[in-house]
């Protein structure tokens, strides 16, 4: 069923189709009818002749009927027109007859054939003449002349023709045939007569008829007149007008109609004139000129062809070549392109610059390609063209290449390379292809197009068998090219960089494999490794460089290789790797010493980087990070890393305020790495930190360490000086002297030395080392000032007196005394002290002697005189002491005078009576002596009172002086064993352990945050007192007082603390001053009051003591939190008990 | 396109390498054929030269082109071009070949004929044929457009042919800087015709080149308003207009342009990517992602480019799908690992299937490739020609053209490969940067959230389409309309911890 339906449907479709076929066939035929008709030449000719004969028959009929009409119209006004029509019919018949004859016998037209035609023309002429003769009023006579002239020309009767045209010009001035007549006459003179002047005059005459369509031709012809007279400028102007004028559009001159494209002709002829008129114009100007006058690409092409050829003829090579190049962009026809190429080649060879060689070769190849792939060009022609043009191309490229080499011109190399590229891409069967490819590679390289050069060299090498000697050079050239390409990486894109890298590696390895003994192998392998490095493949680069160094440790690339390996490690941030590798190099004796030293520095820097990272980690998580650094320092003990780790630990612990770690690490660093460059900074940190935290015992040790490590450092002297001072304050006189000694050993300035010299001498004295003190003073005498010398001599004298070397003592006393001037005291108050001491002590021997001079059982005048004399001497001596105005010694001298006078009074009173005296005499004698003795005793008492008075006035709190004003009546001397206020206490020295005591630790840590925090300092000073390191307490308190001087609360406490410390250190005088200062600042300071009152009481200044006690309300002392010396507290309570 | 294409391409380029047989060396032309025929007259079955044309013409008239061809060819080989019927014989020969499906051979013969300037009637017919071929499929553009159409004047041409000639000559002149002459040609094109709109398109491109974008947009819009049947031109216009609108930030209009294209979406892989960019720029991340999702359809397997990955990872990153963004980067690296390796090892472009396919999507290469396929197809039909000399002759036409096209294709592939390899390497770097930026972005957001104190709610998607509701089925009419739900995850950090481990 389905099948049946299908068949039916097909049949019906076929029926419909067959029905429609005629219709569609018609349509299709119309569409497919291409208009071709089979040509039968004989039949066509036959038909043509038949048609002509038919035409002839029709013309003859027309002639006959015209004649008949003429006959009937002899009197009619239109008769001349009928004659004119008849003449035209004869002309038409003449034409037909000519064609019949010509078609029937095409091989040769004989003169006979013209006979009938010419006869008919003559008949026409006769009719024209008849019109002119018979119809003088005929309005178209000018036309008759014009037609007649035309026929005369056809018949070769030129003179007659001229006459007719002249007749029009002269007789019918208004006729529109006049300009055309001028034109045709111009042509006559131009062509037949070659009379340029006449021709020019006639053509020019046409220009007077601007409405005439002949003007365009006339202008063109006139231009040619100028051309023939070599007046090119005039000519080109006219030609330009021809091209730009719209006249040419309406050209309606029978002679020229549809025969000539005046505009195009004029444009093309301009090319000729241009080369003559504008000789100085360059080719670009020429191109612009003609582009301006051209109205289409074909017109432009036509004129440029003419122009190019003109230049070629005139051997203006550059111009011609440029125009041909321009033409090659306009034309696509391969034959034309080849023609242009050939001409360009000729020009280029003549010019010899080859600057457009790339474009020229491209042109050749464009043309040849079009032929090569065309089936319409014979093979032999293709082959010939390829052969010929290959030579052209090769010639110009190699010439340019040669010139580029000579001039070393990169630009020329670039052009040559471009041209070579085209050449080798097309002439792949060239007999010199290999040479040209090599040239191409070389040109690329010289043109600095390294990547392409590499590719080309690689390609060349690839094609060569291993035996070829050039292969080695080619591979090497490829390597160098790729290397250079990578050196100018900024000129490459991503792909090119990747390509160059891979190229260098491949070519490099290839070279090394094929020529393992080649002298360039090390350099090449180095570059292979370098490129791996350049790619950022650090591990591979390290491996390759390492291999290279292993193989060529002394090679010139080794140094760079080592550096690049280190850099690769650096880029990876693998500092351990860097250090390990660096260490290996440092210890590799095969490597240059200088390089090893450089590496050592780098390793050192790397170590710093590791530590930096550890430090950063430590700062983020201090406990863990600190441990890491400590472990690291331990792990790399005695290596640079260990040193760096310790340094980092110092720095970061400082940052974190971890004093224990800082001191510990700092100390380790200094001791483990004494030569480290970090020592200075580390000690600086330690000094600074310990100073900030008021750890003076620690500070002083670091200051001394600094001096030991860096004896020549600019700060060393100052540090030693400070250390000396601190040591002195700490009571460590020997250590203080050591520091001073170090300074003095290198000190040159007197002013700076003097203070230390006396300090040292005093310290030695304090230690009971008199010899040393004398030695110090003597040795440095030469460096002392005048005042210093006096003082030194006085001190020496005093020391000698102490040593009982009186002779020497006197010598120095004499020196001092002679040199002494009172005015010097202003410069140095210590001088008077020294002088007073010297004089006082020098008297001690006489003083003792004086007391030893005693009468025994009888009066001995000698003895009396001696004692009296000595009394005078002593008094004089003590007076001298007093004059020096040194309070301490004045008091002692006063007391001395008191003693000697009292003694003398006793001496007198107890003197034995002379023998033989009566009782009365005895009484009288005793009375006299008593009176005399009383005078001495009164004098003595007077001095004693002065002494006591001054002592009270000065509030003397000095056990050495106490004897002079406390219970002076006790001549037994018991009271002379007077002691300091504070009993001798144990000496505690808390140094670095301070941080182990919780209380001290907290306070020290507070100070690291704010080193000037007076309250903390005050608390610390108190803490140190309580820990019994009184001297340290004094230093802390002094520091605090230096920091803040204008605040009440902590200052009072500080001074009180200072005073208590002084008490403990048995410096009661300073203690008194401190307490007084405390009360001056804070009159409610209970501690200071109790302490000061106790001190006063102890030294017998009872009234003053009581005065203070009276200001203390009951209970206040018990509750006071102030620091109170136990002795003072005891005295206070004793006072309470007594007063109660 | 598929792997078979690449294999064919590879075959082409290898087979035609120097030394692997040279089609050009078997070169034949009528002159040669004449000699061949003379020397083997026994084998020749056609009639003698005198009657060959008549017979050929009669057969041609009867549309018996297969039989007409040998007769006409015989006439052409036996006679010189100045013979009275030579031009017509060549014309009929060309037309017969075209009728038999040898379009290139026809073009080759007729072009050669036109270049000899035969009678205008023949030229007109030929131009008509060229015009038709130029609009219907691949052809030898250099020969037809450059050498025939643009190298001569065809004042006599009328109507459509005149427009065709003026259009190409105008373009030719404009490309060479002869702007006035170009305009003269363009002015001669009849308004409202196909070539008029082609001209407008060229004019628009020229305006773009001159940075007169608004003017260009106006011209392109005029083309789209035209009623003329030129869908391919209109689609091209829409694409260009969409790109201009995109560049001007008029994303919605650009998107509309892409969507108005009549061309099947399957053929417009790159449009899809550009649409995705538009959506992305309009902050429609979900729509953009939907468009990118469409790329997973088998039709686009070989059409997308590395840019796809970059955009995708951008979108993921913007909504804080960091793992997904990273996955896309890894996917890119995995997808192009082979290509990158080939680039790094300086491999042959044709060894890289992925990039070869991308290369074939390049317009110029695609055109040559299309032309080569046509040549191969037509060349294969040469076996149907029984007349040996004619077969040899026609085969030679194809062999020469294939050789030229293959040379050109190889040259273009090398050039484009270098460009695309460079692009790929750049994308590789971009991918690395993207990886870095993702990490940076994550840490930045962690920081911001940490200090802001507020945990952001997931930004609700407007359209709660299930994420990837597809089951691997792709319907062509839906490809440009997929929507993907991408709730913003920038406020939710619970998953990020793993990145910082």
Topology:
The complex is a heterodimer of chains A (1140) and B (501).
Chain A (H helix, E strand, L loop, with lengths): L1 H31 L8 H32 L6 H26 L6 H24 L6 H15 L2 H14 L6 H15 L3 H11 L8 H14 L3 H13 L17 H16 L5 H11 L3 H17 L3 H14 L3 H18 L5 H16 L6 H29 L2 H17 L6 H14 L3 H14 L5 H19 L6 H21 L6 H14 L3 H14 L6 H15 L2 H12 L6 H28 L1 H14 L4 H17 L2 H14 L5 H15 L3 H14 L6 H14 L3 H14 L3 H17 L3 H10 L6 H18 L2 H14 L4 H4 L1 H24 L8 H23 L3 H23 L9 H35 L5 H7 L32 H12 L4 H13 L3 H14 L4 H17 L3 H14 L4 H13 L3 H8 L6 H4 L6 H14 L1
Chain B lengths: L2 H13 L14 H10 L9 H13 L3 H14 L7 H14 L3 H13 L4 H17 L4 H9 L9 H17 L3 H10 L5 H16 L3 H13 L5 H17 L3 H10 L8 H13 L3 H10 L12 H12 L3 H14 L1 H8 L8 H8 L2 H18 L7 H65 L49
Helix pairs in contact in B: 2-4, 3-4, 4-5, 5-6, 6-7, 6-8, 7-9, 9-10, 9-11, 11-12, 12-13, 13-14, 14-15, 15-16, 15-17, 16-17, 17-18, 17-22, 18-22, 20-22, 21-22
Keywords:
heterodimer; A: 1140 residues; mainly alpha; 53 helices; 76% helix; disordered N terminus; B: 501 residues; 0% strand; elongated
| Biggest sheet descriptor of chain B | none
**In terms of per-residue confidence, which ranges of chain B show pLDDT below 50 for 5 or more consecutive residues?**
16-47, 454-472, 494-501
Number of strands of chain A: 0
The strand count of chain B comes to 0
Note the beta-strand portion of chain B.
under 5%
Q: Which structural class should the secondary elements of chain B be placed in?
A: mainly alpha
Give average pLDDT of chain A, whole number.
Answer: 85
Principal-axis shape of chain A equals rod-shaped
Runs of chain A with pLDDT <50, length 5+? 1-32
Oligomer status: heterodimer
| CA-atom Rg of chain B in angstroms | 29 Å
Q: Please name the two chains that share the biggest interface, counting residues whose Cβ lies under 8 Å from a Cβ on the partner chain.
A: A-B, 40 and 54 residues
Q: How would you characterize the largest beta sheet of chain A? A: none
Roughly how many Å is the radius of gyration of chain A?
69 Å
The end-to-end span of chain B amounts to: 44 Å
Strand content of chain A: under 5%
Range of helix content of chain B: 55-70%
